[in-house]
Amino acid sequence: MKKLTTLALTAGFAFSAFLAPGVASADDLAGIKASGEIKIAMTGAYPPFSFVNEKNEVVGFDADIGAAIAKRLGVKSVIVSTAWDGIIAGLLAKKFEAIVGSMTITPEREKAVDFVGPYYHAGRAVFVAEGSDIKDLNGIKGKTVGVTLGETHEKWARTQAGWTIRTYKGLPELFLELKSGRVQAIVADNIPVMIAIKNSGEKIRKLDTPNIEGGSVAIGIAIRKNNPELKAAMQKALDAMMSDGTYEKISVQWIGRDIR
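^ that's the sequence the OP posted. Answer follows.
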């Protein structure tokens, strides 16, 4: 569910020339076709959606979704690893053509970028160490909470009374900090954390928060505004993947189930 950041949006507004309604510009699809590749951004620190394998390659659900869309556009995908808190600014600065990075679609982000999708749905959750005496959100008051810098979870966590917030680069750091006791809870998307608990035996427990804000959100692929041809082509590719079984195959491989 990654993510919203004041830094990214502030930087995004600095690129207002890209966003102004009615500004004429060439559609990015033509340039992508001419170059034979589409540069796709993700953090590489969000397993199983994007992470670095033993060959120093960024792999995962997002990487495969991006590659499959690129193939249907007739080009290859080139992954650009980018810190989350600057990823929208990087898109607007034309460092890459798309963000396939588990980005939550929000009204605030839609002011800066367009979205293809959604390509899956996720939800916010709060996790504590397995042996913690914290039972609910009230039990976190006075505690230190870890979040990934720039995620929508960070913005939400900062609205909670009595929480001290620490920011990190991604889930691996959050798990280490929770294990060490430097934070007493973490806020993150439920899917990757539950997978980590299942696959690697992380000693983490999910709090019961049935009415938590952001418990179910749509995740989209961000592109620059004023690109109707690219948006239509990518949406067509995504729709076809969801119809012909390609999406389900990728989802089951990395997540264990269809998460659309």
